[in-house]
Amino acid sequence: MNKFVITIGLLLLSNIAQATTEDQISFKSEQQKQLYLELTAELRCPKCQNQNIADSNAVVAKDMRVKTKQLLDEGQNKQQVIDYMINRYGQFAHYQPPFNVATSMLWLLPIGFILFAGFVQVKRSKSKQQVDEPTNLSDLDDELAQLLVSDSNNKIDTSASNNAKTEANVKDIK
Amino acid sequence: MTKKINFRFLPLVVFVLLLGFLLKGLFSDPSERDSALIGKSFPQFELPDLNSNNKMHTPETLLTEPVLVNVWGTWCLTCKYELPFLTKLANEYDVKIVGLYYDQNHAPEFGEYADIPTIRVEVKEMLARLGNPYQYNILDLDRSLSLDLGVTGAPESFLIDANGIVRMHHMGDVNERIWREKLAPVWNEISQ
User: Fold this and answer.
1) Same domain, A88 and A64
2) What was the pLDDT predicted at B47?
3) With an 8 Å Cβ cutoff, are A21 and B143 in contact?
4) Burial B129-163 (b: 16+ CB within 10 A, else e)
5) Confidence band (pLDDT; 50, 70, 90) for A98?
6) Which chain A residues touch B148 with a CB distance below 8 Å?
7) Overall domain count for chain B
8) Global ipTM
9) Over 90: is that where the pLDDT of A156 sits?
10) Which residues, numbered 8 to 27 in chain A, qualify as contacts with chain B under a Cβ-Cβ cut-off of 8 Å?
11) Cβ separation B152–A46 shorter than 8 A
12) Is A99 among the domain residues?
């Protein structure tokens, strides 16, 4: 039992020791550290399918982290570091795609979708309003008059006929 | 009335378009992408020969004629499979092949150093066993040239023309099919 506890304890300790080896990067300033963290989160590991270079343990991701730190030490700004990586690994290496013909769909498609949905909504509510407009009612009045003429002796439940006709109209427009 | 019919088929059209888009994605290779280096000059470098610390290689010594630069390492399993074919290319098709030795372990920033004598022994043993396509090997210990070349791992191969312009960047092994379909057309063009 004692051996077991010691083994587990040592395993946990070795884990901690390993985790700290790579995290000991000394930064010139808090601002540089912030920039480094932003860049490693935004730059994409070219070897892995979907990881940023901060997340990945691939050799190339490590090299890119080291290079990022080195370029920051040289005094380069964020955009310069990003351009440096894009020049070597292509646009793939940056998680923020630029706006161009090929990528325009990413922005335009959702906007287009919303506009289209709005257009359909407006059109629908307009056609519903038309049902209630007096022109339709006058049509109904004409029919009603005809019915009254052809069957003047019988009493007609006008309200029922009116309702049925209106429903039919709505269905037709839909 | 005609407008009504258009709207009715709209979901179907959207569905078919989406289906086509997803079907295309199913058969596309996500690791395949254009290299950023095509059409650019081979990057500057000054690196030692794998077998001699005193012998230095530069673009001036490397890029005198069309060359296939092959990024490899003894640790890389796929590289073992392409060595025999590369050897065949060098011997039968007269392709000038230069190795760029990519070491995985060397990382001075993290206190890890590669053992060069061990690498030399391993390389010698492996090339004797599987074939040696290389005129010589450049040792890129800190992977600086590899980073400049946009190398993501090994094996990768570059075709560089006589003017030192990168014409092709292939990620993965070079085999009979890849050579015939992808690399040979470019090689034939630049080696004329």
Assistant:
1) yes
2) 95
3) no
4) ebbbbbeebbbbbbbebbbbbbbbbbbbbbbbbee
5) confident
6) 88
7) 1
8) 0.83
9) no
10) 21-22
11) yes
12) no
